[in-house]
């Protein structure tokens, strides 16, 4: 499917305000990665659920960098700003604009399933990244196995914490599938080791994690381990414990392992371990190009993981 000039201006009206002089009905923050030179052959529209998490900003950067190597595509970004209704509107606008392919990182599974399915049934390929939706009305899903990553984190904690450890679990947004999967995998990997004495939904956000950790510290005199579903959550918990003078002796474990964030925290001795959750940006662009070229792609593309722990654990 090739875009018409009208469709191009329609989508650029919410990606690049100067195109039509009108603002987007979604009111979203947006960006575009046009490759310059000749007119791109295809337009790919990307809806990111939010940019408040450093991992998502890194995903957009990885997508933009990968797209820049392919002058045949124009990649348009929209930020749903953690607003499910706004993200639904963005997907509907992508369809109205007649884009050639949609990429989406859904904020939540259930509310985004319908607009994604409608876009897919209209004939537009849809690449779902990171967070699953319900059913199978999309072209392909790209993401890591969150159950497996949560299980690895649970096993690591089980092998490094004392048998009766008192554990805090700071969960991601529990209406999102990755948070549900990380929680399930973590409890499976933890097995019979320790007791989870406090759990809270910090919605993937560091300030919320710090607030919840303050509550845990106020309620419990002894905490041995903090497991957060992402590195900002683990870092927020560490800062809360440090401010209370209680960080010494606690284990802090997170997920994501961005070089400038989770891995840096491990190297600085703030976190004990982090587990890589790859953004999949390069894989997403490569997959989109195959789809646009008419090639078949797998329904599910699983990304790998790795563990990054402080050097003191290397010989254990």
UniProtKB/TrEMBL annotation:
Locations listed in the record: Cell envelope
Keyword Cytoplasm: no
Entry's family note: Belongs to the bacterial solute-binding protein 2 family.
Keyword Nucleotide-binding: no
Protein name (database record): D-ribose-binding periplasmic protein
Keywords associated with the record: Signal
Cellular component aspect of the GO annotation: cell envelope
Lineage start: Bacteria, Pseudomonadati, Planctomycetota, Planctomycetia, Pirellulales
Origin superkingdom: Bacteria
Start and end residues of each Periplasmic binding protein domain: 44-296
Signal peptide region: 1-25
Molecular function in Gene Ontology: carbohydrate binding
Any one Pfam family match given in the protein's UniProt record, by short name: Peripla_BP_4
């Amino acid at each position: 499917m090739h875009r018409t000039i009208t469709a191009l201006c329609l989508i650029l009206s919410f990606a690049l305000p100067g195109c039509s002089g009108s603002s987007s009905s979604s009111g979203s923050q947006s960006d575009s990665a046009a490759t310059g030179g000749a007119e791109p052959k295809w337009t790919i529209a990307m809806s990111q659920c939010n940019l408040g998490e450093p991992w998502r900003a890194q995903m957009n950067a990885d997508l933009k960098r990968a797209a820049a190597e392919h002058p045949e595509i124009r990649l348009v970004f929209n930020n749903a700003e953690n607003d499910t209704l706004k993200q639904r509107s963005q997907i509907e606008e992508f369809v109205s604009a007649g884009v050639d392919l949609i990429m989406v990182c859904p904020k939540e599974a259930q509310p985004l399933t319908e607009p994604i399915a409608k876009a897919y049934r209209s004939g537009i390929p849809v690449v779902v990244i990171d967070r699953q939706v319900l059913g199978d009305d999309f072209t392909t899903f790209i993401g890591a196995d969150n159950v497996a990553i949560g299980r690895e984190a649970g096993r690591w904690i089980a092998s490094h914490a004392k048998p009766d450890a008192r554990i805090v679990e700071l969960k991601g947004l529990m209406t999102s599938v990755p948070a549900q999967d990380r929680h399930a995998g973590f409890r499976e990997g933890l097995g019979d080791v320790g007791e989870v004495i406090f759990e809270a939904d910090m919605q993937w956000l560091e300030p919320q994690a710090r607030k919840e950790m303050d509550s845990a510290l106020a309620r419990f005199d002894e905490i041995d381990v903090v497991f957060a579903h992402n590195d900002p959550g683990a870092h927020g918990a560490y800062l809360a414990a440090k401010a209370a003078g209680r960080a010494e002796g606690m284990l802090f474990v997170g997920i994501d392992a961005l070089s400038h964030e989770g891995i840096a925290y491990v190297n600085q001795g703030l976190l004990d371990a982090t587990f890589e959750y790859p953004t999949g940006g390069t894989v997403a662009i490569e997959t989109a190009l195959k789809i646009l070229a008419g090639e078949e792609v797998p329904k599910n593309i699983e990304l790998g993981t790795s563990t990054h722990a402080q050097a003191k654990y290397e010989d254990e």
